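Hey L., structure's done. Input below.
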Amino acid sequence: QVQLVESGGGLVEAGGSLRLSCEVSRTFFIINAMGWYRQAPGKQRELVARFTTGGSTYYADPVKGRFTISKINAKNTVYLQMDSLKPEDTAVYYCNAAPKPSQYWGQGTQVTVSS
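Output:
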């Protein structure tokens, strides 16, 4: 069963923090090749963070220094720690394979940052 279950979103004031979780279907996804995407209203979905080959990480410029991607292999779970949140971070956040996502998308988790 293909499974991507995101959670942890919510409403937070600017400057606040949230931690997103993504439960990954181990039989389909390689957890070391996962990433986080987001889609704001009226905008295209964009990659914001991912694991790279060699065990490093990549962050899109708008989130660099504020977001941290991590994982616990034993739990098949990927996390996105988001600090110093800004209103422009408001979006639905998804996890998927990265940099090239699979056709399978979870329901996403809504993050809303108020000013």
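Strands lie at 4-7, 10-13, 18-24, 34-39, 46-51, 57-59, 67-72, 77-82, 91-97, 109-114. The chain has a mean pLDDT of 95.

-- N.
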